[in-house]
Specification:
With about 280 residues, this protein is α/β, with parallel strands linked by helices. It contains nine helices and nine strands. Helices cover about 40% and strands about 15% of the residues.
C-alpha cells in the first residue's frame, strides 16, 4: 500500500511496548495509535530510547536492538491488523551520553534513513554540542535534535539552535511545549524557535500512557491563531514525510512574532481552553 501523503506525520514517540518508559504492552500501543489516528496522524516513526555509548559495545548493542526489534515487530503486526491505513515505522531516540555514536546499524536510524534523532543527557546542553552535530553530519548522517526547548538553561542562550543548524543539524519541537506541558519557559522557548524560523519538525514525544495527552490539537490551535497554518503544514506533514523518504527538510518561514499583550492574551485563551477541557 502506498503511503498516505495527505495525513499528518509523527517522528518522535515511544510506542514500542515494554522497552522503555513508553507503552507498556501491545494494547497500550494500539490505544496510542488509535488516539493518533483520531488526531489525523497516520504515518508514525516511533523512537525508543537508546544510549550512544551502547553503540560502541557490539554485543550489548545487538542484545538491545534485538529486544526492540522483537517488540516492534509484534506491535507493528497488531497495528497493521487494527489500523491498515497507518504506516508504522521505527527508529531510536539516541541519548548522546558520549560525544560519538556509531549509527551504522539502520535499526538505530529513523525509518532506516540517514536521519538520526538525538537528545542531550539529563536535559542539559553539553559543551561543544555543535561540534557533536558536525561530526554526525560528517559521517554522512542527518542529526535531528529533539525538543531543544526543554533543555535547562536554553532560554539563556537560545542562539544555540542556530549554531546546531549551522553545524548541519535539524530541529524537532514538541507539541506539548506550546500548550504549557513543560512549563512557561519551555513554552516561550518553543514559540521563540518558531519565530526565528529554526524549527524543521513538530512531533508528539508521546509516551503511550492513557493518562498522557498528545497535544497535537492544542498546539495547532495556538499556532493557527498566530497565522501559522502553512508553517504547520510544513512541520507536521511535508518535512516529516520527506524525512521518511530520506530527503532533507524544506525551509520553514518564521512564525509572525506577537507583542507582549497578544502573547498574554494567547496564554489566557490557552488556559481557558484547558480548563474547559478543549
Amino acid at each position: 500500500m502506498l503511503p498516505d501523503t495527505t495525513s499528518l506525520v509523527d517522528i518522535h514517540s515511544h510506542l514500542v511496548p515494554g522497552v522503555d518508559d513508553g507503552a507498556r504492552d501491545v494494547a497500550s500501543t494500539l490505544e496510542s495509535v488509535e488516539r493518533m489516528v483520531f488526531s489525523r496522524i497516520r504515518r508514525i516513526v516511533t523512537t525508543p530510547h537508546i544510549q550512544a555509548s551502547l553503540t560502541h559495545e557490539p554485543l550489548r548493542l545487538e542484545e538491545r536492538l534485538s529486544e526492540v526489534t522483537e517488540a516492534f515487530d509484534k506491535a507493528a503486526a497488531a497495528v497493521h491488523s487494527s489500523f491498515p491505513e497507518v504506516e508504522f515505522r521505527r527508529g531510536h531516540e539516541v541519548m548522546m551520553d558520549v560525544p560519538e555514536a556509531d549509527f551504522s546499524d539502520p535499526r538505530i536510524r529513523m525509518a532506516g534513513t540517514v536521519f538520526v534523532l538525538v537528545e542531550w543527557p539529563r536535559l542539559q546542553i553539553p559543551p561543544g554540542s555543535p561540534r557533536v552535530i558536525r561530526e554526525i553530519r560528517d559521517q554522512g548522517y542527518r542529526p535531528v535534535v529533539a525538543h531543544p526547548e526543554r533543555y535547562q538553561g536554553f532560554s539563556r542562550d537560545p542562539s544555540i539552535v542556530r549554531r546546531w543548524r549551522d553545524a548541519g543539524g535539524y530541529i524537532q519541537v514538541n507539541y506539548g511545549s506550546f500548550a504549557g506541558r513543560y512549563g512557561t519557559e519551555a513554552q516561550d522557548a518553543a514559540f521563540g524557535i518558531l519565530e526565528g524560523g529554526d524549527a524543521d519538525y513538530l512531533a508528539s514525544d508521546f509516551h503511550g500512557h492513557s493518562r498522557l495527552r498528545i497535544y497535537r490539537k492544542e498546539a495547532w490551535a495556538v499556532i493557527e491563531e498566530r497565522g501559522g497554518q502553512w508553517i504547520l503544514e510544513a512541520l507536521c506533514r511535508s518535512n516529516p514525510s520527506r524525512l521518511i523518504e530520506g530527503q532533507e527538510p524544506l525551509p520553514v518561514p518564521p512564525l509572525p512574532a506577537s507583542g507582549h499583550l497578544e502573547r498574554l492574551r494567547t496564554k489566557m485563551r490557552r488556559t481557558a481552553r484547558r480548563l474547559g477541557g478543549g
